[in-house]
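Sat 14:20. Reprocessing the chain from the morning session after the first attempt stalled halfway. Input below, unchanged.
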Amino acid sequence: MVLPPPQRLWVGLLVVMVVELPGSLQKCIFDEVQAQARVVRAAPVAPDGPPSEPRLGAQAGREHLLPSGQQTNHPGREASPPHGLSVTQGRRLRMLAPPMPAFPQPIRIQTWIPVEGNSLSEAEKEKLEAAVEEAVKMVSSLLSVNRVPGPLLLSRDVSKYCKFLWKNSSTANYNRCGRANNNYRTETCLDVTIPDGHLAGCDVYSEADSPRRTRLRPEGAGLPDTDFLLYLHVQATDKCRAEPQVLAYAVHCQTGTDGRPLAGVVVLCRDRLAEAAYSQRATVQTVIHELFHALGFSKELFHTWRDCSSTSQAGAGCSPRGRVTHSDGSGLMRVFTPSVVAALQRHLASAHPELGGPLENLDVPPGRLSSHWESRVLQGSIMAAMLGDSTTVRIDPVTLAALQDTGWYAVDLSRAQSLVWGDGEGAMFGSLSACQNKSSSFFCTGSGFGCHYLHLHKGECQTDPHLEGCRMYKPLKNGSECWKEENGREEDWSGEVFGFHSRCFFSNLTRQVFVCVCVSSVEGRCYRHRCTGPNRYQIQVSGSEWVDCPAGGSIQIKGHRGLVHCPDKRLCLYGDVTPPSEDVGTFPASITSETLTSAQNGTRPPLRHPAELTAASALCITAGLCLLAAAVVSYRTCGLCRLRVHAAPEDHTQDLQRAPPP
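Finished this time. Tokens:
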């Protein structure tokens, strides 16, 4: 992506939306804002037929200016050009456009920043620019399109610049503007004024049958090498001030003749920028999240998705899909398109026919739609309504399948990241009854401490509005990362080891010291691990040798009391689920034997808000009589062993607590 110098300097501002704000939750208001945005659809340029008839006063965001299917044949007359262009101009544009390859190529996303200042430091600008460029590069590597021939020119809104159109189909200027709106000033995309250079020109024909015209606006130069134009606006808007949890919001505002979004805007809440809490990893993810919305993952566009099953090219020779969303038996709205259904069936290992992509239902009236996946079923997805800690977010197969089913993109599905949440859990996974009955180990009950399901973090059993009462282990706010060596303590009687190769395990281990017996309940502990094969690994506790840890079983460690539970189908299966690393790109490819081997050898990643740590600690107790001469020593030694005492998941607690000491 090459930007003019002023734009290159500011392009990174987009990432402001994903600064890490401890203790807060990111709220996405995309659906609210998109429903209020005016969307302009380009008029078709067809050499053998007239264009679709525009409609004045179209509803913003819901009805395009040029609805499909409204065409009238007029033999013997050349097709009218896009509104604002003369017939000669329209023909010239078609003739000058260079020939394009007949196959999809990586989408070219151009960014444009308004000239308004924003008081960012040079260091902030550089970091943000790097993050946006990484996000755009990732999206371009995932999505390919039939590229726009020649410069991209956006359309003018005929309902804004024109008072009326010639409606008599027998006249020469049928479907052209007959009178200008004297109050017309400019075009906007949400709060951004679109430069005239990005827009097609427009003419006014004062007489129904006369070729004489008045140039209302000249034609812009357009943007070369561009398939999608993204306007970035850094501003403390009213919506930002009204919603402290909103970091940014986005819309699309222009679509092509096939319905594909051509332009959109992202508004960044300027006041949310906090340099000390900035996370490039989270920033890249949120940019991708917003781009996916603007590119088509939107409830306002579901009905315009296209069926390209009969053609080998995205967007070429495709037909409208019509309605793609339906309610399942429980009342949950789902996306039922072929790739989405197949991806979810593979993920959950179920052939159930109602496994469409589940849509979020929080604050959504029955029968209405959301532009996010249901968190209970697709937790961790890049398009979930709430993005968690940046190491837990995935560009998942179901989301990429949905983008493919838009019909506008050829998607590299092989680059999907592993979606561990719910993998192989069956069709009922994520239902309220299933999670409340704890029929899956991905959910928890109570409010104890354990391990996040990726086992990179310690976690606390919590819920949130999107989980609707279901509970899961969410990363703690402070010191939950097992892979951070600095989280370790000087003297730890549970044998914990922190570092890049450490993972979280349910455990109640305590060291044997003199005659003092420190007893604790099961909770999440960090121990070193190494893979020896798929779903096979060893662990190492502080001061111990490497010990085989059979998946699904529990083991004892020499010199310690208690047990360690060995998670099944969570470790050494997903080669791209690893801690962040400075040496490896943020978004690895899909799992291959090579990536799994790298993970087995201990090499390395994926919008956030860890749960707060509210744990209390309890002193361990002495289990027997101590010699009087050693009582003080034993007491002082045991006094250092202050372990949190909380309930662990039911399926681990019994095995761990009833085992005899070694």
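The chain has three domains: 5-295, 306-430, 449-657.
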